Please model this.
Amino acid sequence: MENNNIYIARLLVKYQQGTLSSTEREELERLLSKSQYEKICAAYKEERVRNEELLYYFESKKQAAWKKIQPAAAPPIKKMAADWKNTLKIAATILFVLGLSLWVFKTKEQRVFYNEVFPDKIYGQQNDVGPGSNQTLIKMADGQEINIRQDLLEITNDSIFAGEEKSFATALSAIRTIQTPKAANIEILLPDQSRVWLNASSELALDRKFNGSNRLVHLTGEAYFQVAHNDRKKFQVVNDHDTVTVYGTAFNVNCYDKKFQTTLVEGKVGVDDSQGNHLSLIPGYQSVKTKGGGLVSKKVEVLKYTSWKDGYFYFNRDNLAHVLSKLEQWYDIEIQPETDIKTITVSGSIGKNASLAEAASILSDVSKLKFTIHNRTLTISK
Model:
């Protein structure tokens, strides 16, 4: 029964995260009574577990947490109370014992996401780590924080929609920032019909007059832009020092770690920095800063810089350290090299729906190095 309980709990969590397949949905319906299943689904859709403190789980406090829940054994899933909150508490307890990670609702103002950690039964690792998912944290002007877990966030001139076309704000000025933590992506439809794919550990802020007198956004981290054409109103992406200006095009901007790197897919963009330098890009080229502070363009393999938004990581004779930095963001892990990884180049691709153990197995094959997973640390050795 315990294994069955664990399995049901994991299916419940996948339903909550929006990653439940049709086959798994049928299995969940089979394992739960119809009334229980319908109540759980209705509760998730209506409230999105809005104020429920589902699980306080920090790996550094795992033993202390275990002592707290040890005296109270969870009843079998099939005997769960009809109340959906009791069902969630049982699922949380089961996952707690197993050592899995969920969304952590630390307070109503601060929510931290942990993707799943679970035993590995395929690749010979001590444990595995699940991939990231589509979700975002929206900081409102009044200080409220709203957690959205879905594929698309839609913003119009007077409404911000999330989940079954339910609006949670009525003006752009109500939003301060749109953030993605580690292990997270989100696609955003802007009021002018431009689309933005926000990568992990990134932040986007729209100017209050967006789609009015300007189309200005502020970016920290990385994003892919597909800009709706408008000859009369330029679209600008800015950070603390640099600006990309376009009228309608597709491009990727990476400003992790104080760099500002623009890769053009189609159309034409202009790049300006705080030193007064200007650079025009054509498709297939990327803007980079020189050591002297100037701007130059170089021809690149565009797919290396854009594949992340299409669901996979592509690398071709890339530095292993660079590839691992992408995995670090997507799986929310720590990289611990015990050998020189900066001189090793690798080629291949990894689907973003792969678990960490699967990704590590692929990299081990192409690099001939040993990859070991312990909790959320990935160690690389000879």
In short: Residues 2-17 form the longest helix (16 residues). The chain is about 25% helix and 35% strand. The chain has three domains: 2-105, 133-305, 311-381.
